Amino acid sequence: MEEYNIPFHQKSSLKWHMKLIFLLLTLFTAGGGIFMLVAVMKEEFIMGLVMGLFMLGIGFYFAYILIAVGILKRFYIEMTEEYIRVSMPFKSKTAYWREIHEAQIYEYNNNTMLAILLEKDVNKKKKRTISNNFTSLYGIPPQSFQIPLRFFSEIDTERLLLTIGEQLNKVYIEDEINIESLNEDNEELDNNIIKAIIAAVLFCVITTSVYGVTIYSLEKNYLMIPIFGCFLIIAGFNKYYLEQSFSLIIRFLMGLICLVQVPAAIILTIIISERAAITGSDILIIINEYFKYLIQNPSDQIVVIIAAIVCFGFGAFRGRVSREQAQE
Predict the structure, then answer these.
(1) Is the alpha carbon torsion for 155, 158, 164, 170 positive or negative?
(2) How far apart are CA 227 and CA 233, in angstroms?
(3) 3-state class of 322 per DSSP?
(4) Residue 133 · residue 189 · CB < 8 Å
C-alpha cells in the first residue's frame, strides 16, 4: 500500500449512517430540551430550566457537527514536507515533523483515533502517574493531541499512518537521529511492591468510604462506584510496580483488594446506621454477622455477590501492565 502524495489536503466528511445518528441525536436532544422548558418548568422550575438548557446545548453541538463536518465540510487534515495541520471542531493543531516523537492509530469506543505525541511531552506523558496509568487501562496511548478520524471518513487510516511514518523517517534520517536515544531521559522504572500495595489499599479505603456513604445517604447501590474504584486501585498499584512476568500471587492480591470494596462498603453502611458509639469488638461482631447472613441468604445478596466477583475479575485480569508495555 502506497502512502498519500505530499502535499496532502483532505476535507472533513461523515459516513451516511453517522449523519443519520447525529440527525436523530439532534432531534432527540432538542425535543427533550423544549419539553423540559415548556412542560417540566411548570412543575419544577429550576430542574426544567437547567435540564432544558443543557439538552438544547447538547442538541446544538450535535447539529453543529452534522452541518459543519458532514455537510459544509469546514474542517481538514493537511500534510506538507514541514508539518501536519488539522482543523477540528472547536480547535486546530499544527505540529512540525521535527517536533513529533511518534504517531499511532487506536480504537476507543468503536471510534478510530490518531494519537500524536510531541517530543516535548514524552517524559510527562510516559511518566508513571495515576492519571497516565488510568488512561492506559482503557488502551489510550500517550499523546499530546488526538484526531478523531470518524470526522474524516474518506481517509484510509493505514495510508495516513504510512504517510506520517514516512515523513518522520525523513526527518530522522536528515538529522541523523538515533531513535533509541529518544528514551534516554525517560524515568527509570523502579519497582516497589510495598509502595504499590499501600497505594492500592489507600485507594480501596477511599472508594469504599465513598461507596458506603453513598449507599447510606442516597439509599441506592450505585455499582459503578466500586467498578470505577477498581481502575483507581489498579492505577495506584501500577504507579509503583510493573510486573516483569505474570504472578498469580500479585494477580490474586489485586483481585482481592478490588473485591473488598463491596462487602466493606455494606458493612460501613451498617456501622453508620447504628448511630451510636461503636467499639472495635462491635465492628468485629457486625462483620461476623454480615458474612453469616451472606452465606445463609446468598439469593438476597445476589447483586452484591455479582459486583464483588466483577471487581475481583477487574483486579485480577484487567489490571496487569508489564514493564515492556509501559516502555512502548
Answers:
(1) negative
(2) 10
(3) strand
(4) no
Give residue 176's pLDDT. 55
Assess whether pLDDT exceeds 90 at residue 23: yes
Indicate the Cα dihedral angle 125, 126, 128, 130, nearest 10°: 30
Closest CA to 212 of 253, 273, 300: 273
Neighbour-count burial of 106, counting CB atoms closer than 10 A to its CB (0-12 exposed, 13-18 middle, 19+ buried): middle
Cell 459503578 appears where? 224
Phi, psi of 268 (to 5 degrees): -60, -40
Q: How far, in Å, CA of 76 to CA of 325, rounded?
A: 33
Check if the beta carbon of residue 56 is closer than 8 Å to that of residue 31. Answer: no
The sign of the CA dihedral 269, 274, 277, 278 is negative
Confidence at 277, pLDDT banded by 50, 70, 90: low
pLDDT tens-digit map of 9-21? 999 999 999 999 9
> What is the grid cell recorded at 280?
472495635
- Model pTM score: 0.57
Tell me the mean pLDDT in the region 244-273: 85
Q: What's the average model confidence in pLDDT over 77-82?
A: 92
Cell 498499584 locates to 237
Distance from C-alpha of 66 to C-alpha of 89, rounded to nearest angstrom: 11
Q: Which residues are CB-contacts of 152 (< 8 A; sequence separation ≥ 6)?
A: 10, 12, 13, 77
Residue type, 80: T
